[in-house]
Amino acid sequence: MQSTRLTAIRHGETAWNVDTRIQGQLDIGLNELGRWQADQAAQALVDADIDAIYSSDLLRAWDTARSLAKLRDMDVITDVGLRERGFGDFEGHTFAEIEARWPDEAQRWRRREPDFALPGGGESLTTLRRRVIETVVRLAAAHVGQHIAIFSHGGVMDVLYRAATGQTTQAPRTWTLHNAAINRLLWTPEGITLVGWGDVEHLQSAEAPKSEPRDDATVAARLAHPG
Fold first, then answer.
1. 77 beta partners
2. Which domain, by its residues, includes 141?
3. How many CB atoms lie within 10 A of CB 148?
4. What is the CATH number of the domain that holds 29?
5. What is the pTM of this model?
6. 11 flagged as catalytic
7. Residue of 11, 93, 153, 225 marked catalytic
8. 75-125, pLDDT tens digit by residue?
9. DSSP one-letter code for 174
10. How many domains does the chain fold into?
11. Catalytic annotation present for 84
12. β-bridge partners, 151
């Protein structure tokens, strides 16, 4: 059977992740912990038989991918189809600011209305899902019989999990989208299937730099909207 192994990795942490500030397609770099996470993920994958490394062209994903590429002496191939969801006017604002400034739109966002395009030129979940699946299928089909690494964003990881498990766009999220987690999938012409999800064993170290403390509300918000 024609198949391609996919290892999908979310970018390392950024300061805006900590602040629950929507990044979307703004180009935000990794913080100290995020750079450490990128290096740990690279070490965990250095001996894997990876044939190509693809990344979103946004800095936080590309920089995470570069850690692995440097260890393996490979190039990072960027693809705009792997970008985070376009959040339009929400980009640059915290969840609390969005709730205060756009209460009606924020409610529709929380309800995960599939065809609701975010204000200011943002993408709908339907548009995001179509873009991500078309991109990943195109990349996988170009590497039949091989293994590729894909470095991207929380929204992209969410689409891949839903596609691999048959979850609808509106289904409540019960799975993790950790920064720098290693997720494993398989592509065949019949679709994408799940092999393993949310591997963070490589991040379980007392040597990790400390992030800013987060209260329970912040953690819940990040799980609901990983942008």
1. 54
2. 4-224
3. 21
4. 3.40.50.1240
5. 0.91
6. yes
7. 11
8. 999 999 999 999 999 999 999 999 999 999 999 999 999 999 999 999 999
9. -
10. 1
11. yes
12. 9, 55
